[in-house]
Amino acid sequence: MSDEMIGLDGVSKVYHRADGDVRALEAVSLQVAAGEFVVVRGPSGSGKSTLLLTIGGMIHPTSGTVTINGRDLYAMGGGQRGRLRATGIGFVFQMFHLVPYLSALENVLVTNLAGAGASRQQVAELLGHLGLGDRLAHLPAELSAGERQRVALARALIKHPEIILADEPTGNLDPDSAAQVMGHLGRFHEGGGTVVVVSHDPAVEQHSDRALRLQAGRLLGA
């Protein structure tokens, strides 16, 4: 776990609005080693989602640098950054972001549009491993919140990413479902994957190698 997978150096993000600037991140510096599981906790509005999306190549910082495997993420062209995001980073969101008219199986297969190249059998096997073998044909509305989150997790895992970024992955779940999702993230970590979770839930810390706190855009204890 000595090699740096994710690096942030002096990253700030300012949103310019008519009623005044909002400083979502303030000079955040963070290094995450390959194979490390890091949890960043903080209250709502502390900048957690902005931090995660900046790491994931989806929000350009106002200042500072973000590196993935030593490569400056925002010095890349948009296409190159998009390819890295599509193949090397898996995202798991609190609101799941499943396509409502697609089945659980089809919601994972859509990753093929970004180059995942997974077969229906591979997807079915992964969903089965996640306890959804009897839910392959179900639409999101026919699934519980915990099942929908596991479909979203399967969508992240199927492309065999180096990194999973999870934004409040237990936020809409009951304790049992939350424990299942965190257990699967833990197994991805045990297999050598790098995980960054942002959450306000103190229970997620038990799965991590390191827990940090974000307060008003400032990272404490990095």
Distance between the termini: 17 Å
Number of domains: 1
Total DSSP helices: 6
Round the mean pLDDT to the nearest integer and report it.
Answer: 90
Task: Compute the CA-based radius of gyration.
Answer: 17 Å
Poorly predicted ranges: none
Main beta sheet strand tally, sense and closure = 6 strands, mixed
Beta-strand percent range: 25-35%
Q: What is the CATH top level name?
A: Alpha Beta
Oligomeric state, counting identical vs distinct chains: single chain
- Strand order, main sheet: write it out: 6-7-8-3-9-10
Q: CATH superfamily, called what?
A: P-loop containing nucleotide triphosphate hydrolases
Would you give the CATH topology? Rossmann fold
Order of helices and strands: EEEHEEHEHHHEHEEE
Task: Tell me the helix content.
Answer: 25-40%
Structural class: alpha/beta
What is the CATH architecture term?
Answer: 3-Layer(aba) Sandwich
Shape: globular
Number of strands: 10
Would you mind describing this structure in some detail?
The protein has 222 residues and is α/β, with parallel strands linked by helices. It has 6 helices and 10 strands. Strands 6-7-8-3-9-10 form a 6-stranded mixed beta sheet, sandwiched between helices. Strands 2-1-4-5 form a 4-stranded antiparallel beta sheet, covered by helices on one side. The radius of gyration is 17 Å and the shape is globular. The protein starts with a strand and ends with a strand.
